[in-house]
Amino acid sequence: MKIHSAEMFKRASLLTASLLLCAGCAWCQTSPPNVTAPPKAGPVALFPESALRPGMKGVAWTVFEGTKPEPVPVEIVGIWENGWGPRQDIIIGKLTGKASRTNVAGGMSGSPVYIDGKLVGAISLRLSVFSPDAICGITPIRLMLDVKEFDQSRPSDSRSPEKLEAAAASEMKLPEGLLRQVVSAAHSVSESPSMTPIATPINFSGFSDETIRQFTPIFNQLGLTVSQGGAGGRLNSSTPAADWASALQPGDSIAAVLVSGDMNITGTGTVTYNDGKHVLAFGHPLFNLGPVDMPIAKDSIITTLASSYQPTKMGNATEVVGALRQDRHSAIEGELGATAQMIPVDLKVRSFGNDDSVRKSSDFHFNVFVDQKWTPYLMMATLFNSLSNLNDFSEEATYRLHGELQVEGQKKVELTTMQAPAGTPVPTPMLLAGWWAEKFNKLYVNSAKPPKLDAVNVTVDLLPERRIAQIESAWIADNKVAPGASVPVKVFLRPYRGERMERTVDVKIPAGLARGEHQILFSDADTLDRFQNIASTLNRIEDVPQTVAMLNQERSNNRLYVSLIESQPTVYSDEKVLPSLPASVLNVMQSGRTTNHEFVSSPESAHEELSIPLDEVVTGSYSLKIYVN
């Protein structure tokens, strides 16, 4: 009972019934393969679920070491009816041989199981922990074949970091939502069912112990096991290797690539089926993201760690050979020879001395998986990793970042910030990485038409001391001014250490400014951005140009802003600012007759006159009264 690959992927729902009727076809006359020879790509005979009986003997194929699959004896224990969902049975099996020592290990997900040379399904679940027997759940091949029938719809129960509970975060005031979830993940506890998908090993290569410690709780709570792994130098490209056509045979190890290059993050499993162009693997989801575009690579297993608690494979991802196309409930499906889109990132880290000279510089080049929810977290992890293990790191250090995002068809996004120690338990590099990740979160929150990032370039400077300056006061020789005049004003700032800083600025008084009392506001970026940030959270921007414009409008926290305040309302809506709005127009907007978007209004309007660059994190604000004659 064999079928060609085209039928296998296009008519999955009728597959089992068709096989039962084809007893006289040519495929059925082929002898079952010898169990000493690993399975090969191509047409395969399927074992009907209805014929399964307890006590039947079979064989599974998986890699314990290196790249060659080994046979593992399997005994069918029974059928767990509806164990995977409505009309979705799970086959319960017991592994013996080498697997009785290793137990059901992470990375075995997808190991194909055969009875009499016919494919039954894939090892995909394990029974609890500390089990003395290697009891596994086998996903029937029928359920795995259903994957190809799905279109571009996305599952509602995808596994992504923003789904994590952040109960512990309410006890700690942190600046960004993504960062709050990372820090709080270690405090959350979840219980596992008795039969659960085998934890997918997520291998971090080129990452420090500190980075792995910080980000492990997120992956663990998503049912993944984090370990330090390796990756070959040829993984730095998403272009398939020349031998892709012969790669990923049934029973071979497969790696899903989230980050590649100088740093690598890969998820390990086993190939269940290969028709020469498409592969099925895992027997359960990676993240259950639905349609995806992620590189898949060959994987070489260093060793399989035996453990009754958390056995797992340790491997090195080697060469990219295709792209993952579907990540579904019962399997992942990939296309050999295809190229997945990745975001190329060039990251430069420079260390400065006390004389403001560059002491050392390091360049990192890597690629990041494109996904609305995962890209921000991967950007966060890679930036934090680049900074957390520097020899120059100190608790008093300040970080200065400038980034450029090349968005296809859009104006370049330029981002600048500084991060000094904030007096929280969170290390300064993590605070900076959280800020960086939030920019990608804003860019990718668009669900209608995700942006295409052609390149990301970022430079981070490590400065040897804490650089914070608080706005303290301002002084003007004569607060009675004339319209159109240029007025010199002194502003004073108090640094973290050292003497008070003084700056003199010339404030231009608009010629048409009404007579009476006004204010000159000296402030940090947060003070001016506060109302616009509130407005942007009220409305979900679903337009890439709007998002790009909003990001480019964000002010930098290492500048002193000088604004003229008028007693006229300002309306903030998404990326738009409508200052000095007449009361009649504001009344109409508040009635809701002119817009479907929510907006935030302020009773005053701040007209930004100028900004002064400072190599410090500027905080606070100060208002100076003036009287226009």
List keywords for this structure.
629 residues, alpha+beta, Thrombin, subunit H, Ubiquitin-like (UB roll), 4 domains, 6-stranded antiparallel β-barrel, 6-stranded antiparallel beta barrel, 17% helix, 41% strand, elongated
The computed structural class is alpha+beta
Number of helices: 11
Using DSSP, what is the number of strands? 35
Helix % is 10-25%
Given as residue ranges, the uncertain stretches (5+ residues, pLDDT < 50) are: 1-34, 165-175, 186-193
What does this structure look like?
- By secondary structure, this protein is of the alpha+beta class.
- Helices cover 17% and strands 41% of the residues.
- It has 4 domains: 2-149, Beta Barrel (Thrombin, subunit H), CATH 2.40.10.10; 161-341, no CATH class; 343-463, Ubiquitin-like (UB roll) (Roll); 468-628, no CATH class.
- It is built from 11 helices and 35 strands.
- A hairpin with a 5-residue loop joins strand 21 (398-407) and strand 22 (413-419).
- The radius of gyration is 30 Å and the shape is elongated.
- The relative contact order is 0.09.
